[in-house]
Amino acid sequence: MPDGDGNAMTKGLCKAHIYGVVQGVGFRPTVHRVATGLGLTGYVRNRGSFVEVAIDGSKKELDKLIKGLKASLPPLARLDRVDIVCDVKLEEGDPDLSGLAGFVIVPSKPGTREGIIPPDTAICKECLEEVLREEENRRYLYPFTNCTNCGARFSVISDMPYDRENTAMKEFEMCVDCKAEYANPSNRRFHAQTLSCGAEGITYTLYGPKGEVFNTPNPFVEFARRLDEGQIGVIKGWGGMHIACKLDVIPRMRKWYERPEKPFAVMARDIETAAKYAVVTKEGEALLRSPEVPIVLLPKKEAYDDPAVKAAVDMISPGLGNIGIFVPYSGAHHILFKHLQADALVMTSANPAGEPMLLGKNEAFNLKLDCYLLHNRRIINRVDDSLVIPYGGKGGALFIRRSRGLVPGAIDVPYKGTVVSVGAELNVTSAISRNGRLYTSQFIGNSTNYNVMQFLQGATEHLTHLLGVEAPDAVAMDMHPQYPTRRYGEGIARRHGLTPVEVQHHWAHGASLMVDLNKGPEDRMLVLAMDGAGYGPDKTIWGCELMMVSYKEYTRVGSLEGIPLIGGDKAVEDLRRLVFAVQERLGINSGMFTRDNAELMRKVMKNAIRCSSMGRLMDTISCRLDVCSKRTYEGEPAMKLEPLLLRGKPSFDFRTEIQNKDIPRVNTIILFEQLEQLLKRPQINDQVKADLARSFIHAVIKELVNMTVDAAAREGVKEVGLTGGVAYNIALNEMLRAELGAKGLTLVTHRRIPPGDGGISVGQNAIAGMALK
What we know:
- By secondary structure, this protein is an alpha/beta fold.
- It has four domains: 13-105, Alpha-Beta Plaits (2-Layer Sandwich); 204-375, DHBP synthase, CATH 3.90.870.10; 408-516 and 756-772, 2-Layer Sandwich (Nucleotidyltransferase, domain 5), CATH 3.30.420.360; 529-748, Nucleotidyltransferase, domain 5, CATH 3.30.420.40.
- The protein is 32% helix and 20% strand.
- The chain contains 23 helices and 30 strands.
- The protein has a ten-stranded mixed β-sheet with strand order 6-13-7-8-12-9-11-10-14-15, with helices on both faces. Strands 22, 23, 24, 25, 26, 27, 28, 29 and 30 form a nine-stranded mixed β-sheet that branches. The chain has a six-stranded mixed β-sheet with strand order 16-19-18-17-20-21, sandwiched between helices.
- A hairpin with a 2-residue loop joins strand 2 and strand 3.
- Helix 19 crosses helix 21 (686-715).
- The two termini are 52 Å apart.
């Protein structure tokens, strides 16, 4: 307002710094709308990773703005903290409030980085309506349609703040119509940084098997026709590429991929179609309808009316009790299915075995498939699809893979230091903590592959850059001396003059569960950590450990009797070696190897490392019951055993005991001795095998529970945590829950962080972070 001499006057400057998910989600446009509605003068802008709001007014007026803002948050936004300061002076680079006409969005200014860009989310209903149904709309059948409420985020950003020039869209200038939407406060694309309509030059092109361009009026129509005819193609999406084919082409796909048994993910046309192939539970449907749209592991049906559907389901995941299903989440997927006759496609990550998902056009052509539907927008961050098991009711889930739609997401941790942690060996992620918040990388993969390690390095460095981390206070890694991630962690520590923190594998599992459950600095938990393998400080391989854990220390209070791993990792692939080791201890000639090979096995067995692993125990049972004798992918034998455990009944009376050596251990050799006797019975059909498997594992669980009850009484706790890769086994989960419940103990499981090795980096980070205190 003017003074008596006509000069502009201000009431006073009030500022709010707002932290949380406030960039890339339509937050600034929302601030603008609320402030304008209140008749305020001021501005909003990005400041690094937080948003700054300034008004010419009082704290009371600013409080009213914040209250209105909280009531009008965009779907993807989240407020974590609001810092308000009033009666302050303008800083260098601040707009002069006296010169503003109302409330405006002003250009970004560098600032501290305490937040991060939100994950990619599925196309919203409004955008999908434009793409599929509004034929007069200029975005009809336009695959890159998005607004402030949806679309690619993390996969396209190179730097903060979230402005167009810091994304893959900087190469494409907005057309006149898009600029008008961008500048219109009443439009849902107001300040949408990645908006486009096709006039900007982002396009899909269809290529042939040698990379030749197919000149076709509509590449989606032609790509769909070729898939319907039985071709195998590649489609480029937001965060990478998928290999796609019809379900009846799976045999050819498996032969080409050299993936004879590993399950494929399937994209169904919609949720109704998904119900044709699997049991869509209420929890499963909620996940499929969520903005994240992960791949959801759903149970197979007990019976299928259509033999062709049953045959397809059997081909999707041979020998397993579930299939991984997801639905279209991008405009490109919806357009493809609009032109496609098939109601479902295999949609698996496009990568050679063990390699990261492909990003480049020439890399894709090297796959030598039938056709390629590729676009010309750069993918900055490779992001695989997330993978989840519905579990626990009320929207509960067990995350196998936290990636697209979920990463990077902040998790509160009870320490303030900056820590980089690099995971274990398999299903690797890295994690970075800063100022009491922890962020995990996207799914990286198995670190035994050189290119996966390159991906880990690139993803970790990009995440540290987005967070503004210049030098960590600590670096954490697994204590296994041969893990490639360890060498990477040592390199980071060496560059910053730090001594890396070595963390025992199962302690990290336990600590990740504590973070997941929001446990505090002084809390302790009794935890069952069950998985395939983890290096122990006694230089043996652990894998079923009852532990009392805190962020500061752990005590191993129970385990399983170890099984010799004849040939080390070779025994994990050729499961006959596990059975041979057990039968050799029982004085049984298995007949699994020739005389000469058996003699060699005996010699090697004398010095074989022992493994107290629930995963290896289940592998041994799986092989002995002729379920799976050779592992072709990670977790296969135990995964194929799970359907038997689910349908089996504990009808056989297996008895075991606890051995008290250095620590209590469940004697499993006694159980195998009983199993051998029972297998001599006539008519061992599939149901009998299921009953034997269930009875065997149930006996182990009961003995572990007895051990747990004793430890819980000593420690005065009523809660028991379950973590590790075996926690994904629903049958084992339920057996453990029931047995503990009968003893007055409560089982708690993961909710946000993968219980498997994808969560190891979180536990490592917490242990190293608490050590800083």
